[in-house]
Design a protein that fits this description.
By secondary structure, this protein is mostly beta strands. It contains no helices and ten strands. Strand 6 and strand 7 form a beta hairpin. It starts with 10 loop residues before the first strand and ends with a strand.
Length: 126
């Protein structure tokens, strides 16, 4: 292996500076200044601690805005205030991330979770 290899790129080490703990399986926003990755914490990460976050090549069941109607293959928006994914017709507010995650299934009104694919591409941070 190359002597300068640090780690595989689909899972990264991330330091939690959010001010709160992140549960295992929790959605993590990594980035600022207009660009952000969406990741999933692979273990619980206490505030101020570092842990492993999957940012690419994974499908996870995550919270969905109940009223959102989402088509399979649609980019979805991380709604930071709702702590859930919304359809791409929603208007992003401060802290929301768009164009970074794809719905792997359709989900209609009243459904509260959805399977999404992490694509390892920076999205737009509102």
């Amino acid at each position: 292996m190359a002597t300068n290899h640090v780690q595989c790129g689909n899972v990264i080490t991330w330091t939690n500076a959010t001010g709160g703990d992140i549960a295992s399986g929790g959605v993590v926003v990594i980035g600022s200044n207009g660009d952000a990755l969406i990741g999933i914490a692979l273990d619980a990460i206490a505030n101020g601690e570092s842990g492993q976050v999957q940012i690419d090549d994974g499908v996870f069941t995550v919270p969905k805005v109940s009223a959102a109607v989402i088509a399979q293959g649609e980019y979805v928006i991380w709604d930071a205030s709702a702590a859930a994914f919304d359809d791409n017709a929603a208007t992003p507010a401060t802290g929301d991330v768009s164009d970074a995650v794809i719905a792997m299934e359709a989900a209609g009104n009243a459904v509260t979770t959805i399977n999404v694919k992490l694509i390892g591409k920076p999205g737009v941070l509102a």
